[in-house]
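EI: anyone free to look at a 238-residue chain?
SC: sure, send it
EI:
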Amino acid sequence: MTNTIDEPNVLVIVPAYNEEDSLEHTIKELLTVVRIYDQIDYVVVNDGSSDSTKEICERNKYPLLNLPVNTGLTTAFQTGMKYAFRKGYDYAVQFDADGQHDPRFLKSLLDTAREQQANIVIGSRFINEKKPLSMRMVGSFFISAMVRMTTGQRLTDPTSGMRLFDRLMIERFAKENFFAPEPDTIAFAMRGGAKVVESPVAMRERFAGSSYLTATKSIMYMMRMGVSILLLQWMREA
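SC: here you go
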């Protein structure tokens, strides 16, 4: 059963860098949800992969935005947001290519955005569950504290990469170069009056491969985000 024509149009943006082992599984699973709802589309942003990610997209005829060189997550995601803005989508969703995100939660993110008139909805693992004790989760506690200190609002899962953005946020990501799919940008948007809420989701381990975030890189990432939230974001006008 498909939805009615007055439903908002949603674009799922799937940045992919060297995800040849996971991408087909991820898109196959995503399509089981996308095909149910007429208003949900998707696009893969190949971020200059050196493996067969591009060829997999072309062979399977996935909607594809191809970057000739590796630019990093920020530019890849902004490319998807520029596409969403030009095509007039009402909402855009950040969605990992590695299989960690569960597409069954897309509809609940959208429903939460509409019911609460939110600009950003973060898929949170920890609304109903406690954070496990790990180096990454210690960093997540730290970033949550920095967000609360600077915005007065509480986020349980600020580093979650599964996020939905409304049309206003799509335009800002498309036009403002310093907007990145990171917790410091979320905190900056909150300081400027954006309504950010969370919606419960579950996440899995990567379908294949391993994360580029080693323990050392995770610590450096958390420190960088903390400094940005506390200091750098205050130098910009919201």
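EI: The CA atoms of residues 131 and 137 lie 6 Å apart.
SC: 👍
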